[in-house]
Amino acid sequence: MRDPGIMSRERLLVIHDPADLAGFVRGRYSRFDVTVSPTYMSGLAELANRPARGLLVGVDPMTRKFSSVVAGLRKAAGTSTRLVLCCLPSGEPTARQALTAGADDYVIYPPNGQEVDRALALPASGLVTPSTPASQPMPTWDELIRLADVLAGMGEGRKQMLDRLCQLIADSMRTANVRILVEGDAAHTGDPNTEPALVETIAVGQQTLGSILLGPRQRAPYSASEVEKVRHYSRLIAHLLEAANQQDRWHELAMVDEATDLFNRRYLMQALENLLRKAAHERSRVTLLIFDLDGFKHFNDTYGHAAGDQILRETGQLFRRHCRPHDVVARYAGDEFVVVFWDAEQPRVAGSKHPTSVLTVLRRFKKALEAFEFPKLGPEAKGYITISGGLASFPWDASEPQELIDRADEALLEAKRAGKNRIYLLGAEGEPIEQSQQSNLIDDG
């Protein structure tokens, strides 16, 4: 029969005790009656017989529907009882998920005294010396240097940044296997199929960005301070991703034309320089089209600048839809657009043509433009917008970006002089491209 004095004291109930959690609780909270239930079912029975001020529940990740177990314990204990989960680092994902089922908090085993105090909302009352708080995860000098390298290399791309962080975390945590999964990107060191022993979520506010997965170690499990160190890494990665995303947004804004949502002139010149360098190395071909809208000033003057902006945007996006995904479509200036057609795959044998006919693209686009309706143009909404353009090719017509544009512009001027609504190919002796049979005309390859 139990001591009536003990029965009169408030109780702390330990359910499914991992190792000696009950011994820790008895030493730290001596003014409470601490009892142990070896299973979740016996814990429910204990609660039915006598209430508890707090529950410390060991997490068994192998238990099916553990969240349902927690929900049952919460119902039996009532809302005024603190329900705290205790898990090994490998069981942390299960514990986090169970918070939504009614648990108030969770702690990592072996427990840190002050963390348990906060979780149970209780002060320590034992005569024993309070547990020493877990040491703060201070980075080493080598880790700081490597973190600086990660920051310095952010401009290289997200994948390279994650690769470096994987290796840094693996060395810091003394494990061979680390994976970082973030927003569609994945990086790893070691075996990516290793079952994780520790999982930490990467999040910004309420938004989950990804996770860090650490494989087990050969000698010893992860300590509480090491678990906290991984949390620091998760927060660091979240901030780095935010900075990288912001950098990408700034770069995109600097390279996109606001009115048409196409690439702007700055991006065009950079891309064209790179493409010509690539084409020269691979002995492939680049064809550049420059076109403008016939009589654009008339539409601006008649229907206003809002209608003019709509014409520019809709025309540019319509051409974008008729090109291959890798071709570059950019607004060059005013109502002028530039399109760069280039070979994305490996070059063919000497003398081969583009894999897709530029002529076919132009005919398809002009047909779509004739049928397109511009809502703000009233009676001229359909069939009144036409274009004139000029074509020039690398390496036959020019070898430098600006020279290629200038040569295509010469062909555009010839098309304008010939009566507009036509595309001229440089060197076609004044004939519209649709009628030209010159050898440098792009065909169906």
Task: Give a quick precis of the structure.
With 445 residues, the protein is α/β, with parallel strands linked by helices.
Strand content: 15-25%
- Helices and strands, in order, run as HEHEHEHEHEHHHEEEEHHEHHEEHEHE
Task: Report, as a whole number of angstroms, the end-to-end distance.
Answer: 96 Å
Whole-number radius of gyration?
34 Å
Note the main sheet: 5 strands, parallel
How are the strands of the biggest sheet laid out side by side?
2-1-3-4-5
Q: Which fold does the CATH topology of the largest domain refer to?
A: Alpha-Beta Plaits
Number of structurally distinct domains: 3
Supply database-style keywords.
445 residues; Alpha-Beta Plaits; Beta-Lactamase; disordered C terminus; alpha/beta; Rossmann fold; 14 helices
Descriptive account of the structure:
The chain has 445 residues and is α/β, with parallel strands linked by helices. The protein has 3 domains: 4-120, 3-Layer(aba) Sandwich (Rossmann fold); 141-254, Beta-Lactamase (2-Layer Sandwich); 265-425, Reverse transcriptase/Diguanylate cyclase domain (Alpha-Beta Plaits), CATH 3.30.70. 42% of the residues lie in helices and 18% in strands. Strands 2-1-3-4-5 form a 5-stranded parallel β-sheet, with helices on both faces. Helix 4 (66-77) links the parallel strand 3 (54-58) and strand 4. Helix 7 (141-152) packs antiparallel against helix 8 and helix 12 packs across helix 13 (358-371). Mean pLDDT is 80; it is low at 126-134, 347-356, 428-432 and 434-445.
